């Protein structure tokens, strides 16, 4: 029986982000409070009788097998497994992955019956956890391509809380302890002697699960990529990435009678001179050990870039989406107006 504090905490966390639409089945889960939520977990989701529900989180998730399809999920962490309770639209949206999901019950069309797909990743199968830049997302890796899931929390607090809870639960697993490490100096611990390149910072948990955090080189690579898009690398030394955040771009849906909008996931990067939107691959990098070939697309693909000097105004508080910002730029075709005037009117 969970403590009152834990039940209260899980109830508080059981809130769907207001800007995302979910199906009736997940709406039902989000409406559960207190002990009803715990009983729902034990009656419908838990695979073992004696497992305990420790943490609940709502997050967008991506699967390695379906890298272009982001879906809303209720993530439940127990002492035995991580459960991803998925929006049922995911099953119908990706028909070509029929072998990935067991759809024998998907013919239930009764409006009173809500079907959800639950993906289970047992803690004993967990091999590593990659934390994304600035804790905006994390990727959980198991032993095969079917067992790689990225949680796009878009929130460093939610990422940090989940990682802490996961470490605590992994400490309860009975695994043979790793051999005692030999004392090493900094360079032999983190540096590869063959390439001299710094590796990502790894923390090996007592359960032998690796927690891998990005190092300074990732920011350096990102700054180099951004500078490349800024026409010339001369300002690379002075280039500072001020902000990196996973966001959504709001696109009005054409042909709809109502004022509906679609949300396109984007990575927003702000420097001292430019504002960029990138399409980022959150699931394929770093390459899992079993990958035989590199991913089909680069980690970062430029979607849009504007100069801060062309920014006219910023509108805040756009009603349907809290925390929404509208950037209004002067339409000068991304060129220096004064330079054109000089050439046209005063030059030879």
From TrEMBL:
GO terms for molecular function: kinesin binding. Pfam families: PH_NISCH_C, PH_PLEKHM2. It comes from Colius striatus. Keywords: Cytoplasm. GO terms for biological process: Golgi organization; lysosome localization; regulation of protein localization. This is Nischarin. Its main location: cytoplasm. Residues 115-178 form the PLEKHM2 PH domain. It is found in: Cytoplasm. PANTHER family: PLECKSTRIN HOMOLOGY DOMAIN-CONTAINING FAMILY M MEMBER 2. GO terms for cellular component: endosome membrane. Transmembrane segments: none annotated. Residues 241-347 form the Nischarin C-terminal PH domain.
């Amino acid at each position: 029986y969970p403590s009152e504090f834990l039940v209260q905490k899980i109830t508080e966390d059981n809130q769907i982000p207001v800007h995302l639409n979910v199906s009736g089945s997940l709406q039902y889960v989000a409406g559960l409070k207190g002990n009803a939520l715990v009983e729902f977990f034990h009656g419908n989701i838990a695979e073992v009788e004696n497992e305990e529900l420790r943490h609940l989180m709502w997050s967008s998730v991506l699967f390695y097998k379906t890298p272009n399809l982001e879906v809303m999920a209720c993530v439940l962490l127990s002492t035995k497994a991580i459960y991803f309770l998925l929006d049922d639209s995911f099953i119908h949206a990706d028909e070509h992955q029929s072998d990935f999901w067991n759809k024998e019950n998907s013919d239930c069309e009764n409006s009173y019956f809500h079907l959800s797909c639950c993906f289970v990743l047992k803690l004993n199968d967990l091999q590593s956890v990659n934390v994304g830049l600035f804790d905006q997302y994390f990727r959980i890796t198991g032993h095969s391509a079917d067992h790689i899931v990225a949680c796009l929390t878009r929130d460093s607090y939610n990422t940090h809380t989940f990682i802490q809870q996961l470490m605590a639960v992994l400490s309860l697993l009975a695994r043979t302890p790793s051999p005692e490490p030999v004392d090493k100096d900094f360079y032999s611990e983190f540096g590869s002697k063959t390439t001299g390149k710094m590796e990502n910072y790894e923390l090996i948990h007592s359960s032998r699960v690796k927690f891998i955090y990005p190092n300074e080189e990732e920011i350096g690579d990102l700054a180099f990529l951004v500078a490349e898009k800024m026409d010339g690398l001369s300002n690379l030394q002075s280039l500072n990435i001020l902000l990196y955040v996973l966001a959504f771009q709001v696109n009005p849906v054409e042909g709809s009678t109502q004022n509906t909008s679609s949300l396109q996931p984007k990575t927003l990067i702000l420097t001292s001179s430019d504002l960029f939107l990138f399409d980022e691959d959150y699931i394929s990098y770093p390459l899992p050990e079993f990958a035989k070939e590199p991913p089909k697309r680069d980690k970062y693909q430029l979607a849009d870039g504007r100069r801060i000097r062309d920014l006219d105004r910023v509108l805040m508080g756009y009603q349907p989406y809290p925390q929404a910002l509208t950037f209004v730029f002067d339409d000068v075709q991304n060129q220096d107006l004064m330079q054109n005037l000089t050439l046209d009117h005063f030059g030879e």
